[in-house]
Structure formats: C-alpha cells, structure tokens
Specification:
With 628 residues, the protein is mostly beta strands. The protein has two domains: 10-62 and 66-98, no CATH class; 146-624, Methanol Dehydrogenase, Chain A. 9% of the residues lie in helices and 30% in strands. It contains eight helices and 38 strands. A four-stranded antiparallel sheet has the order 3-38-37-36, with no helix packed on it. A four-stranded antiparallel sheet has the order 4-5-6-7, with no helix packed on it. 58% of the residues are buried.
Length: 628
C-alpha cells in the first residue's frame, strides 16, 4: 500500500481506476508505445495465450502491483524471461502491465493487521487440533477426523464468515494454509509467509522469501530441546526453516539451481528429514523456437531438517539429457527431460518409501517414469519401483502456440499427475494407493505389489486442463473426486487476454468405493447463471470430514456435500469484495488449486485464481459456526 515517502498515486473506485499525477506515472504514459512494443516482443506469446499456458492474462495483471510483476521478472518465476531485458525495461513493463507506478519495497503492505499484543507462547503444535501441510497427514488423505475437525455435519450449514485477510498486490491466493497451535501459517504470491492468529487473523509475524510461495508450509520439531519449525518451499526452489514462534530464519538452502526449478508441492517431514519435491516447468520456455528444448529434469531432495544439509537427490528421469537433433530453424534439441513432481510426497512407513506422481516429458525421447507413480526408498533415494499410467507423453506449451517449432512430434496428451497419491487401508489387511490423473482417470495401485493395478475408473474426458487436477479426499470408505474438464468458448479472444470459459463445460463431484472403484454417487456441477466469466469446473482439491466433503469451483463457490448422497448442504459464494483485518479491501474469485482446511471448529480457504481465465482474487477467509 502507500508509503510515507510516496505521493498518493492510485485510488481504486469500484471497478474503475483513477491515477493521480506523479513524475513516474507521467513517464509511464509517455512511454506506453515503447512498453507495448516490449510486451508484444517478449510477453504476448504466453500472456495472450493464457488459455493454454500458465501465464496470467493482461486483464488479470492489471490487478497486480507493479512491485509483484517486477519481482517476478528480476528474481522470481519469470527471471529467465526477464534476463534478456534491461533493468529500465523490466520496470517499464511492470508499471505498464499493472497500470500502477512503482513504490519502494518488495511486497506492498499497509502496515496494518499486526496483533496489538504479543501472541501467547507457541504450544506443542500437535496437542490441539491441527492441519499440517497439504494432505493433513503423511498419507495425504485430506480427511480430518471428528476430533480434529471439531465440526459436525449438522453444524456445517451454519458456518459463517468471521474474518478475511488480504494478500496485497496479487491476483491469486494459492498457498493452502497450515493450522497449528492456535495459528494459521500461509504463503502467498507476494513473497510473504504469514503467521496469523487463528481466531482473529491478526499478524504475529511475516517472513519474506526470495520468490512466491504456493506450496503449503509444513510444521514440525527439530533439535534438543525441541524447537517448533515451519518449513517453506518457494518458486525458485529455495527451502527455509523458520522458527514457528518468532519467524526467525534458522537455515536456508536451494533444493535445485536449474533454470526454472521451483517447489509447487508441499515438503513432507518424516523422522527428522524433509522430503522436497522439485517441479520443472521448462515447457513454457519451449514457446521460443530459439530455445534449446529441453534438458531439465525434475527431482526429489531429502534434507536434514535440523541443518538444511542435502542427504540425497533423485531425478525422475535417470538419464542425463543428450543432443537429439535440431529443430526446423537449426536449434539444438535435447532429451529426455521433464517428468515434474507437482505435488506433495506420500510417506509409507511400512515399506520405508515415499510415493510421488510425475508429469509428462517435455521432449523426445520419452521415458518410463513420466506420467507415473514412483516409489523411492526414504533412506537411500533409490527408485524401488515405478508404474507408468500413460506412455509416450512428450508435450510442451509450444504445441498450442502459433509457432510450434519446439513441439515434440508426435505430441502427447499432457496427462500429468498433478495431485498427491493417497495411501489407504482396505478390508482384509490390504492397502491401496489412489492416484488421480489429468486423463480423467482415478487409479488404484497395490503398493505391496510394485504398483500392480487394482482398479481404474474414468470420471471425465481429461485434457490439458481437464480430468483430476489438484487433489481428492478419502475417508476410509470412499474417495471423493472433483472434476475439472474446464473448456473455453469459441468466442474467447486471446488478443488482450480476454478469455471466456465455457459456462456449460466441466465440473462435478464423484464418490467412488475405495475397494472397487465403483461410482456410489455423482453430484453434477451447479449452473453458472448470469455470472461472467464463469466455469463450473471443480479443479481445486477436495477436503473431507465425517459426513461432509468440501469442494470449491472456478465459479467462486465453496460447497459442502453430504457424503451419503452428494446433496449440497452449504454453499458460500466467495467472489465478492471484503473488508480485511489487515486494513484493506480484497476480492474473492475463482477457487482453484488449494482446498479448504478444517481444524478445531474452523474452516479456512483461499479465494482468487487469476490464471486460465479464472476470476482473480487475493483473500484468505475464515469461517466458524459461532463466535469463538
């Protein structure tokens, strides 16, 4: 927000923007033709094709702060693209795209929202109800027991909003909260991790990272006497251990220093080791026909939780990339590559392994570890077994661009595993590993028989943004599977970033029997009505408590469904404006990627996802049944 050393530059009035005069704002207007040229030459290929790339649209970037855009170009997820620009060009692009001048500092903040009194001493995080990391437990079930949830099915219809918290300057709220010891720990796209009072939302401390944080943070103890620590992974693949009580940095390390390495899945803590998944979205760089595609490989890194020292690193593609001929304009091609790990690992104490799901290869040749579930020994990092569910899937985003020079031939269907595998017990002492795929298929594998297929059930048609995206929830009898299958209408205009999601395509929630994969019930998606843009797709992760499963939609609604028959028992529309506890107004938008978390009678969820044509937003919402 505004700093004392800067004149009032920007007033937001409803949906309109009034920019008051300043020398920098005047310069921005004068140089707009140059900025437009820079955008066309360096940015438009991705941002004007936002329906098929991970880039936010032009209209979405108008809701960002200039500082957030500049940071992405200089030291964040767009550093590789920004490296070809001069410093003054990056600054010009940041002000041009945001429509706002640069102030000083990193992530903007109003300075408000900090707790008036020091928070009470941090208690043992596991003595009271908690939600730790992505899947609440090391099995990644996303199921909260009755005791831990503190919320009965008959109370859910009475949930009411208690407070809202703004993530300043961003268009996305994608860091799923962790709840423990009376606090909410949550990362953000503005390079800040916050520790909030779980009942009031006031800020206990704020920790600045090098890059945005979309992965859930993980909490645990290290050392003797034991110290409670929050473990953080950011979008430059840096890992931080931070004192949970004070926000003090204990150690920092980089899990991987390849060009675009980042952490999108939550690190998993187990027996003194932190297991860090590293994703490798090199496929976006392939849009440039002059880029030597592709030679980056995803990996998992085991780290000593007390010291930050690396113990082992295992690549999902074992073979180092080699030259593979040249593309149509004579640029060297490489392979194999890719097989990103997008999600949090799942721990199997019985077999002493962790399980990960992988994405596609970004270039030929393809490998047998892409679009697969891998079992990796916890001690050595050795791959014990792998089960590939889609073969020959070589794909990158050049395949959907006007210039497809770097698209692998033949291209694959882009059927990544974007969600964590769920480890469950079956009757008779058997077990199953449940893994949802972008193909629209839920797979059940036998972890005790090298991943032998137990059953497979199709819930959707799948596709680039289709199928099962971010996560399902399992309660011991059923697995609840939200379906994306988002699509865009023929009237969409990529020029200028104007996307129109198809309001009649995608969505729905399935309940499957974990023993057989049989469909028990299906809850169809709710119609969009008059809202535009709108999609009924249910891409976000689901969360379950006894009797209830929560599933958010790109249309902005969080709905609670009865686990008996799929009937909606609570519906909250998050896509609106909020007055927040940190002193500013924020907006809710599409619900995508993270799911809600439930602990101690409270439900917390992020709202806003300004990618893929979704509605931007920047708010964390907290609900309970009664004032607490």
């Amino acid at each position: 927000m505004l700093k004392s050393s800067v004149s009032i530059l920007l007033l937001i009035i409803g949906a309109g923007t009034l920019t008051m005069w300043s020398p920098e704002a005047s310069a921005v207007r004068t140089l707009q033709p140059d900025a437009s040229k820079l955008y066309r030459e360096h940015c438009a290929a991705c941002h004007d094709a936002a329906a098929t790339t991970r880039a936010p649209t032009r209209s979405a970037m108008k809701q960002m702060s200039a500082e957030v855009i500049l940071q992405a170009l200089e030291n964040g997820t767009m550093k590789q693209q920004g490296a070809s620009l001069k410093p003054e060009q990056r600054r010009l692009l940041a002000t041009f795209l945001s429509g706002k001048p640069l102030t000083t500092g990193a992530a903007p903040t109003s300075g408000a929202g900090f707790c008036a009194q020091p928070m009470r001493k941090l208690s043992d995080p596991f003595k009271t109800p908690f939600w730790n990391g992505w899947g609440v437990n090391t099995s990644n079930t996303r199921f909260q027991t009755a005791e831990m949830a503190g919320l009965r099915a008959d109370q859910v219809p009475h949930l009411a909003l208690r407070w809202a918290f703004e993530f300043p300057g961003t268009i996305v709220a994608y860091g799923q909260p962790t709840v423990a010891a009376g606090r909410v720990f949550v990362g953000s796209a503005n390079r800040a991790v916050y520790s909030l009072d779980a009942r009031t939302g006031c800020i206990a401390w704020k920790f600045d990272t090098i890059a945005p944080v979309r992965a859930s943070v993980t909490i645990g103890g290290i050392g003797k006497p034991e110290r409670t620590v929050v473990f953080i992974g950011d979008q430059r693949a840096y890992v931080y251990a931070v004192d949970a009580a004070s926000g003090e940095l204990i150690w920092k390390m980089r899990a991987d220093d390849q060009t675009v390495s980042r952490i999108t899945g939550a690190p998993q803590l187990y027996k003194g080791r932190l297991y860090v998944p590293v994703s490798m979205p090199e496929d976006g760089l392939a849009n440039n026909p002059k880029y030597e595609c592709c030679r980056l490989r995803s990996n998992v890194v085991a780290v000593d939780a007390e010291t930050g020292k690396q113990i082992w690193k295992t690549y999902t593609v074992s073979e180092e990339p080699k030259p593979q001929g040249k593309n149509a304009i004579g640029v060297q091609l490489w392979g194999p590559s890719g097989a990103s790990v997008w999600s949090a690992p799942t721990i199997d104490p019985k077999l002493n392994v962790l399980y990960i799901g992988t994405g596609d290869n970004h270039s030929h040749p393809t490998t047998d570890t892409s679009d697969a579930i891998l079992a990796i020994n916890l001690d050595s990092g050795k791959i014990v077994w792998s089960k590939q569910l889609t073969k020959n899937d070589a794909y990158n985003t050049a395949c959907v661009m006007a210039d497809q020079t770097n698209c692998p031939q033949p291209p694959g269907p882009d059927y990544d595993f974007g969600s964590s595998a769920i480890l469950v017990n079956l009757p008779g002492g058997k077990r199953a590993l449940l893994a949802g795929q972008k193909s629209g298929v839920m797979h059940a594998l036998d972890p005790d028989r090298q991943g032998e297929i137990l059953w497979q059930t199709r819930v959707g048609k799948g596709g680039l943004l289709g199928g099962i995206q971010w996560g399902s929830a399992a309660d011991g009898d059923k697995i609840y599977v939200p379906l994306s299958d988002i699509a865009f209408s023929a009237s969409s205009s990529l020029a200028g970033g104007r996307l129109s999601p198809d309001p009649k395509a995608g969505g729905g929630l399935f309940a499957l029997d974990i023993k057989t994969g049989n469909k028990i019930w299906y809850a169809p998606p709710a119609p969009c009505g008059d809202r535009t843009p709108c999609s009924p797709a249910q891409s976000a992760a689901a969360t379950a408590i006894p009797g209830v499963v929560f599933s958010g939609s790109v249309d902005g609604h969080m709905r609670a469904f009865s686990t008996k028959d799929g009937r909606v028992i609570w519906d909250y529309d998050t896509a609106r404006e909020y007055q927040t506890v940190n002193g500013a107004k924020a907006r809710g938008g599409s619900l995508d990627a993270p799911g809600p978390v439930v602990a101690g009678g409270w439900l917390y969820l992020n709202s806003g996802y300004g990618y893929w044509g979704g509605m931007p937003g920047n708010v964390l919402l907290a609900f309970s049944v009664e004032e607490r």
